[in-house]
Write a structure and sequence with these properties.
Blueprint lengths: L2 H9 L2 H5 E3 L2 E2 L5 E2 L3 H15 L5 E4 L1 H9 L8 E5 L3 H9 L21 E9 L3 H11 L5 E10 L6 H7 L9 E10 L10 H9 L1
Parallel strand pairs: 1-4, 4-5, 5-6, 6-7, 7-8
Antiparallel strand pairs: 2-3
Length: 205
């Protein structure tokens, strides 16, 4: 059976189209973009054909802009962003509206169709307060949220109280929140550093 025939069968399989991951994992769990020939095939042929069937999309930084802008994902309910960069995020979610896609919105428009959102980034997210938190607030019907991020801060430590005030209380439908947030404090500012026990208490109150 030829590769084209197998690919055609894949794109007609709802198991394949429901949740689509468009990057590669290495043996040491690093993320890499798809080969150019495969990515071209997806962007030029496959995604325009199955865009209305995709319910969850996972993308990485080098190809995410091309993938997200290639078509309108009208039935997208879940989005996973891995190692997204500041400028890419601004263009996709805070910049000028490109078209009618539910992905390409400005900061004032809501995203009611998204029920799941995952953000993973292993570099400092300097745009967390400016862009990430407002984006999450736009996802009114979010049920599942995953944040694996690293933040530098001059005075704010991300604890349970902070997460409740800035995220959880804004998402009335949220029933699953998985997170691993590394807060990097600048010691020359002499911040107050809570103990592990104090941090744990903020999640219980």
């Amino acid at each position: 059976m030829g590769i084209n025939v197998k690919l055609t069968q894949f794109i007609r399989d709802p198991i394949f189209t429901n949740r689509l991951t468009l990057f590669r994992y290495s043996s040491n769990d690093l993320i890499y973009p798809l080969d150019n020939t495969i990515l071209d095939r997806f962007c030029l042929q496959i995604l325009p054909e199955i865009h209305h069937k995709i319910k969850w999309l996972n993308v990485e930084p080098l190809s995410m802009e091309r993938i997200l802008l290639i078509t309108n994902y009208s039935n997208l309910h879940g989005l996973g962003l891995y190692n997204i960069e500041d400028e890419t995020f601004r263009r996709l979610f805070a910049g000028k509206k490109y078209d009618d896609s539910s992905i390409h919105q400005n900061l004032e428009e809501k995203l009611p169709s998204l029920t799941s959102f995952s953000l993973t980034c292993d570099t400092d997210m300097s745009f967390y307060w400016e862009l990430i938190v407002p984006l999450i607030h736009r996802m009114l019907n979010l049920e599942e949220l995953t944040l694996y991020i690293e933040l530098s801060s001059f005075k704010i430590f991300i604890d349970g109280n902070n997460l409740k005030e800035n995220i959880i209380y804004h998402l009335s439908r949220l029933n699953k929140f998985v997170f691993n947030i590394l807060s990097i404090m600048h010691l020359y500012m002499k911040p107050y550093l809570p103990t592990n026990e104090e941090i744990e208490l903020t999640f219980l109150m």
